[in-house]
Amino acid sequence: MSTYLIPVIIFAVLGLAAGILLTAAAKIFYVKTDERIEKIGDSLPQANCGACGYAGCSDYANAIVNGNAPTNLCKPGGTEVSRKISSILGTEVLEVLPETAVVHCRGNCEAVKKRFEFDGIQSCAAAKRFYSGEKSCSYGCLGYGDCVSVCDERAIEIVDGVADVTGVCAACGKCVKVCPNGLISIKPVAKHIDVKCSSKDNGKATKQACSNGCIGCKICEKKCPHGAVIVADNHAVIDYDKCTSCGTCVSACPRKCLVNITCTHSEKAEQADN
Questions:
Q1: Dihedral over Cα of 240, 169, 148, 50: its sign
Q2: For the domain with range 99-273, which CATH number is right: 3.30.70.20, 3.90.1150.10, 1.10.10.10, 3.30.750.80?
Q3: From start to end of 138-195, where are the E strands?
């Protein structure tokens, strides 16, 4: 009987000792965390998109509590999330200005021609590595939808061979990071004027490559009453700090590379609900 009893007692004592040691270690090495971090983390959308400049939502929550970040950096969450965070901290609500992604290209199936048929992996990243893609314009949208695949909001889609933001964008910036041609940027929703070309070729080469491309004529630059439009790298660029969305450049552009997007965030949301 004792042959079996002694090992049981030994293991029981060892188990008890290990439990006591683990409990003591847990108390000794316990790191007190601010409960506000968890509350703020729960208020965030958990998109972990990195648009706030931090590695993820928990990292951002920690930075807020430690006073290293303001409460209005969460673009997907918007002002509503900023309000929740301010309520937890007891601070003033900081407004989040709505932003959206914009694709700087209008090189659709009619505007550009194919130089060859690409039979490789159907992704923009793969096509870019193979002679900069099959389209006649090497700067334009490759059209395989890498941006579409990373958009959690389903706000972007391929329309006639070109990516276009058709839904309510959270401005998370995932599409910006994944576009191999760097065609997508984030801009304020309140600024309606967009440049729909990113070609760096001269006017003659752009005309040959795309019937919708910017030829760098500088008419928009000369006509803009606020000095908000300049031509850099052979295509128009808008300074949104100066732009008033007056539309003068849109009317002046002979190639219709500048467009006025008047559909607001709220209108897109209503369309999505319907």
A1: positive
A2: 3.30.70.20
A3: 156-159, 162-165, 184-188, 193-195
Lowest pLDDT segment from 33-37, 237-241, 270-274: 270-274
Neighbouring CB atoms inside 10 A of 246's CB total 15
**Measured between alpha carbons, how far is residue 138 from residues 86, 129, 155 in Å?**
47, 11, 25
In this predicted structure, what is the pLDDT of residue 265?
A: 46
Segment 220-249 shows an average pLDDT of 95
Q: 35-89 belongs to which homologous superfamily?
A: Electron transport complex subunit B, putative Fe-S cluster (1.10.15.40)
Q: Give the model's pLDDT for residue 5.
A: 75
Percent of the chain at pLDDT above 90? Answer: 72
Model confidence pLDDT, tens digit, residues 69-126? 999 999 889 899 999 999 999 999 999 988 999 999 999 999 999 999 999 999 999 9
The first and second tokens of residue 120, run together, are 């490789």
Look at residues 103, 109, 108 and name the one whose alpha carbon lies nearest to residue 147.
103
Report the alpha-carbon distance of residue 257 to residue 218 in Å, rounded. 12
Residue-range domain boundaries for the chain: 35-89, 99-273
Residue type, 274: N
Q: How far apart are CA 163 and CA 259, in angstroms?
A: 15
